[in-house]
Amino acid sequence: MMSNETVWFEQALLPDGWARDVRVTISAGRIIEVAPGTARAGDCHAIGLPGMPNLHSHAFQRAMAGLTERRSGDDTFWSWREVMYRFVERLTPDDVEAVAALAYMEMLEGGFTRVGEFHYLHHDSDGRTFGDIAEMAARIAAAADETGIGLTLLPVFYAHSGFGGQPPSHGQRRFINDIDGYARLLDGCRKAAAALPDATVGVAPHSLRAVTPEELTAVTGMKDGPVHIHIAEQVREVEDCVAWSGARPVEWLLDHAEVGRRWCLVHATHMTGDETGRLARSDAVAGLCPVTEADLGDGVFPAADYTGAYGIGSDSNVLIGAADELRLLEYAQRLSLRKRNVLEQMYERAVAGGARALGVSAGLAAGASADMVSLDASHPALIGKIGDRVTDSYVFAAGKDAIDCVWRHGRKVVSGGRHFARQAVMRRYRAMMERLL
Ligand code: NGQ
Ligand code: ZN
């Protein structure tokens, strides 16, 4: 029999707002009761937040952070992608596990407690499948297991280099499957996820560039659970989609797929007012990755006009932090609209939307996984702050410096801002990078 554990917060952000003197009772990794107005008991902390879901990550890209920021001509998303393809050529399964462990450790230290890994680096350097087609997926699961982060594994179906079923390019050879291969990969992903306490598996057609309409139908029909797709990230992608189909990417998807609660549309940067309204009404989640979208020069999501669900993702992992993503989400709106305080309750909305996109229940509430973050009330930005001022100060004035402890599925994996396995994870990552660079 597992005994219950108690964590108590002077103030905590619950699904219906801030509460005082909150006792959280945990059993076997899950919250079984949240009781405001209780006396101090158990492990006591000043400020409790629900852990932030990270709905979109390519873990391996953490290892190329800082290597693509030098001007070399007319640099664009597409030239970055060529550099990324070259970088990916040399990564072994051991490398992928080492960098994923680093990224997931940094996510936990940065306030993210679950990751949606949009996983597409499937095959060996020559493009041949490994003996186990899900070898790389198993390495992702191993990194999640080692660090303790919650995993929603999103194996990616990738088959083409452009709209209309164009053949894949040489640089994409490690990503490519046919439908039968993908079915076997999905099966392997289910097995890899089954070893973790609360991992879930979804499906991820890479983009409308990389799948045909028939493949999109086949892949989304293969299992229940989350469906994630990259969409309308770049203007050229919108133009190519219009040339191919007469419709814009989000418009095409809403017209041809049953886009609803299962779906997460990653980026959805370039939309008309009509698409923005339709996406909100569809009940899908917009998967916003503000740091990467800025880093890659994508554009600005029309957040001020969007009333639907959204969550945040660290995508390329060039910089990892929940507060960093939320801050840039709001700042991009301010810069482009020349206004202030455009979005409201960003933290709460990103928790709810992110959890939905990752197929789990959200927040500090009975039934949810005990995924929690405590902030250091003695951080200069947090002194004397109560309620919404706490999240505002965390996002705009402190960032991950203010994170004290992080619990994942009831286990404290970060204390004093540091992950319990930091030394071992760093040692392996350093050895890998010294060999690669
Ligand atoms: C990816 N990343 O799959 O890693 C993509 C780039 C593509 C982002 N979209 C490749 N941020 O979209 O073709
Ligand atoms: Zn992506």
Descriptive notes:
- By secondary structure, the protein is α/β, with parallel strands linked by helices.
- The protein is 35% helix and 22% strand.
- The chain has helices at residues 77-88, 93-109, 135-147, 179-194, 213-220, 235-245, 249-256, 273-282, 290-295, 322-337, 346-357, 388-398, 422-436, and strands at 5-14, 17-27, 30-35, 43-50, 52-57, 112-119, 150-157, 200-201, 204-205, 227-231, 263-267, 285-288, 309-312, 372-375, 403-408, 411-415, 418-419.
- Strand 2 (17-27) and strand 3 form a beta hairpin.
- It is globular, with a radius of gyration of 21 Å.
- The site of N-carbamimidoyl-L-glutamic acid has 9 residues, from loops.
Q: What class would the helix/strand composition place it in?
A: alpha/beta
For the sheet with most strands, the description reads: 8 strands, mixed
Spans with pLDDT under 50 lasting ≥5 residues?
none
| N- to C-terminal distance | 49 Å
Give the amount of beta strand, in percent.
Answer: 15-25%
- Give the overall shape, derived from the CA principal axes: globular
What is the residue-mean pLDDT, rounded to a whole number?
A: 98
Concise structural overview:
Helix content is 35%, strand content 22%. With 437 residues, it is α/β, with parallel strands linked by helices.
Key descriptive features of the protein:
8-stranded mixed beta sheet; 5-stranded parallel beta sheet; binds zinc ion; globular; 437 residues; 35% helix; alpha/beta; binds N-carbamimidoyl-L-glutamic acid
